[in-house]
Amino acid sequence: MKQVKWILGLVLISFWACDPKEDPVPNPTADVVKDAIYKSMEEWYFWNNELPVAPDASSFDSNETYLDAITFKPLDRFSYLTTQEAFNNSFVGRNAGHGFGFAFDSEEKLYLSFVFSEAPAGKDGWQRGWEIIGINGKSIPEYKTASGGYDFKLGTSDPGISNTFTFKLPDGSTTTRTNVKAEYQSNSVLHQEILEVGAKKVGYWVYQSFKATAGLSPTSSNEVKSSMEFFQAGGINELIIDLRYNGGGSVAVAEQIMNNLIQASNSNKLMYTNKLNSLKTSLQTTENFNKIGTLNLSRIVFITSRGSASASELVINSLDPYMDLVLIGDNTFGKPVGSFPLSRYNRTLVENNVELVPITFATANSQGKAEYFDGFPADFSVGDSPQFNWGDSRDLRLGAALQYIQNGTVSGRMANTYFKPKWEMIDAFKGLQQEFPAY
Fold first, then answer.
1. Checking DSSP bridges between strand 380-381 and strand 324-329, what pairing results, if any?
2. Is the pTM of this model over 0.85?
3. What pLDDT was estimated at residue 422?
């Protein structure tokens, strides 16, 4: 969608130039904003032919309830509203909060699943594998809701908010930490190493979200560049990519990763096509591979879960026609569609600091595969084990991936560990936060 943004962005910048003294005072709850949402959806929404007649804006108490009333159910679980600043910050990893994720094990014990190194939690030394046994003086079961989920009542992401956590550490000791939310730069690469499996050198890459490095043009990630150079220098001949907690992010960064992974023999071949609604067919584009680096892999093992969504699934779908892909863990989320922000195409949204991010396109791989709303099924279903830190061979999904690389299959013992969590971190968030889930 880079072409769409570029062409229309130029037109609107020149059209909206005005005297700064005339800038209006934002009023994001005004009915005129809801009308602007509907008009933008009429023009750009992927399912615009399914829109109802425009509802009476005055009968809705928020923009969110208005948007929910007009989105196409049940396929659209994804369209959302935010602010322009929040949207832009998220895609380059500028966050606020404690900076951690969580996951349950098979006994419904709660663990830290990942920690951003420069976040308040990371600076306090928190690690994946720590069991969370209490929050603000209450046990974890006390936060369970009637629907079977959890509401930990940690407050908004605003800096200055504090929460107190009690952990049971891997050595059996306990520690209580009070952590204050703050702004931080999140890292996408949570772990990388090269493992020896027989005569093979196996790269293991834990990638949490497709975030770009601010200021780079064209859009790309320095973290991705460094990781790929690390694996190239290590001479790997197999690669495990761990996307189990990756909710998506930048399509441009996904392309950067795929261009590193594709074989040189498949450079210039079709990566994916996108489809817009019937009003925008002239803006539909295709993307071809353009080989970067020297990695030459015939197979990739992905570790996936229901938290693997959006750009994670785009990578899997686009590479599938050209490589042997093996999915270990759980089925992916199921998001074969994507979005780009629409405020730049509507003056009312810009003036009122409302960012509308509805579904605007669908993608298909070179074989035309585009409908995977149920997600990609795991080839080998294996339970998550967040009680073990990254790279620990006792991690069931990593262990299964290494077993597959060594033996060409996954044992029944590993398969017997599979369980489907009743509630996962991706269930705790909606909209922009669901794409970049973290507390």
1. parallel
2. yes
3. 84
